[in-house]
Amino acid sequence: MIYAYGFSIPGFYHLSDNSVCQDAHCIRKIKPDLAVAAVADGLGSCEHSEIGSSLAVNISTEFCETNYREEMSDDEILGVIKDAFEAAYESCKQSAAEKDFPIESYDTTLDLVIYRAGQIYYGHSGDSGIIALTADGLFQPITEQQRDEMGYVFPLSFGKDYWKFGKVEKPVASVMLMTDGMLDTLFPFDIRERPPYIHVALARFFMDLSALKITVEGESQTQNRIYEFVANIDKDIVYDDKTVAVLLDSEVVAVPQPDEYYKEPDWARIKEEYHEKLRRIAYPHKSEEVEKT
Fold this sequence. Notes:
The protein is an alpha+beta fold. 39% of the residues lie in helices and 23% in strands.
């Protein structure tokens, strides 16, 4: 059986000026072993991006629910997801035209999954992301953030040449979709080059079935508990809107890893090593002087 929870919380910069949350999410549980989920992050620089993100998640998930068939092959399921991205973008264009808004004002990211009996099919556009807990007990990203060298995001409007689609080849015990504000908490810069490259303890908190106890306390209580945790994350850690959508399959058991895998990192040491690395890059002559002495 698939369990689910998800929410979108306005970031501090929206709360400070009483503006709208530009994130959106949607979860559709279709059958006990079948669900669709999507998250979208409207670009902050775009005037009506909250409309774009809302349309993107609702239209794309509705399209998948309507057009998915049990007998479909892998390629056919991925075809449905590709068409769902097209439908989402066309809906944005139509809405913008009706309101006489430029289509760029709707710019948004979009991440979507179809979760079928432990199998994940996905589509990806932008700098949000998807993380899977596979049956071998490992947490792994299955998408890469799409940004240029200046940090500008590749939104849904960039079109099919930028959209990415695929299937996770391993059985998946759970999957989590996050907009970039939350995604960066799982992949902080100072551990991105350090195995296992992800804040495992935090990932486990969000998406490990046994750790969550969602089968015992239920989806609503679990969602409320995780919501409170995310809502109270310090603004120095996440200033942006915060969106999380999680699907968990109780029929797929993730093999536990050694305790060391789940251990909280030594953040003080890691941060010092990270900053020392930056100092060596910025001031190579000083590093050489230290080594000589």
